[in-house]
Amino acid sequence: MSGPRVDAKVVLLGKEYVGKTSLVERYVHQRFLVGPYQNTIGAAFVAKVIAVGDRAVTLGIWDTAGSERYEAMSRIYYRGARAAIVCYDLTDGSSFERAKFWVNELQTFEENCRIYLCGTKSDLLEEDRRRRGVDFHDVQDYADEIKAELFETSSKTGQSVDELFQKVAEDYVRFTAFQLMTEEKGGIDLSQKSSPYFYSCCHH
Ligand SMILES: Nc1nc2c(ncn2[C@@H]2O[C@H](COP(=O)(O)OP(=O)(O)OP(=O)(O)O)[C@@H](O)[C@H]2O)c(=O)[nH]1
Q1: Which of 198, 161, 167, 150 is nearest to 24 (CA)?
Q2: Which CATH number does 8-186 carry?
Q3: Residue 196 carries which DSSP code?
Q4: What is the mean pLDDT of residues 39-52?
Q5: CA 151 – CA 87 distance, rounded (Å)
Q6: How far apart are CA 185 and CA 4, in angstroms?
Q7: Are 153 and 119 in contact (CB under 8 A)?
Q8: Ligand 1 neighbour 154 (Cβ under 6 A)
Q9: How far is 69 from 71, CA to CA, in rounded Å?
Q10: Can you name the residues that pair with 83 across neighbouring β-strands?
Q11: In 10 A of CB 204, how many CB atoms?
């Protein structure tokens, strides 16, 4: 891969237990961890380089804690994000209401942040359709209204996980990187852009 390197800040938001950490695990480490659920405390950070055409895009992914206890902290992590993956659990209607809360926040405070709605745990619906707690058409209408992309993923099987992050990276190159270049006089050398958030710390 040649060409300039681009760094995109991506934040994952959503109610606790919807599967944000599992989504990152699947995407970055191609694995699905079984065992007792461990909630994220604060936030966790991971970076992954992804190819978009001849570019290497480094996605800096912030996995925030879903617990409302950490709500104020999650606000810190979406600052300056160019993409937000707002997750809800396809089997849990209340998690979709929480997703709407985060969408409203982003629309109010981060208008340059592109929004990706992500319905998680689609494998549970494969097992039993009656477990769907969020109507697909309602979410599709909502996604159209807020101009968001919509994905239904499974971190257990890997369904649509790579596609989701690939779309985030492609949109970043297509819309945001060029916007940044034209904003700065004479353009910028993207390979020289630093990523301050790489130095931040995280834990699960
Ligand atoms: N069947 C199934 N279970 C999943 C999937 N993704 C996550 N889970 C399970 O859902 C539970 C919560 O997953 P996490 O990834 O820890 O959820 P989270 O959104 O990061 O939770 P917080 O850190 O509290 O915000 C765990 O028991 C996971 O094993 C999935 O795609 N399919």
Answers
A1: 161
A2: 3.40.50.300
A3: G
A4: 92
A5: 10
A6: 18
A7: yes
A8: yes
A9: 6
A10: 10, 114
A11: 14
Residue with the smallest CA separation from ligand 1 atom 2 is 121
Q: Is-contact 81 12, C-beta < 8 A? A: no
Residue 73 near residue 11, CB atoms below 8 Å? no
What pairs with residue 127 in β-bridges? none
pLDDT at 194: 40
CA 163 to chain centre: 12
Q: Is the CB of 119 under 6 A from ligand 1?
A: no
Nearest CA to ligand 1 atom 21: 17
Nearest CA to ligand 1 atom 17: 19
Domain boundaries, the chain: 8-186
Minimum CA distance residue for ligand 1 atom 12:
17
71 CB within 6 A, ligand 1: no
- Ligand 1 proximity of 124 Cβ (cutoff 6 Å): yes
Spell out the residues 6+ positions from residue 23 whose beta carbon is closer than 8 angstroms to its own.
12, 85, 87, 118, 120, 153, 155, 161, 164
pLDDT tens by residue, 100-126: 999 999 999 999 999 999 999 999 999
The residue to which tokens 């050398």 are assigned = 189
Residue type, position 44, single letter: A
For residues 12-34, average pLDDT: 97
CA distance 170 to 176: 10
Amino acid at 39: N
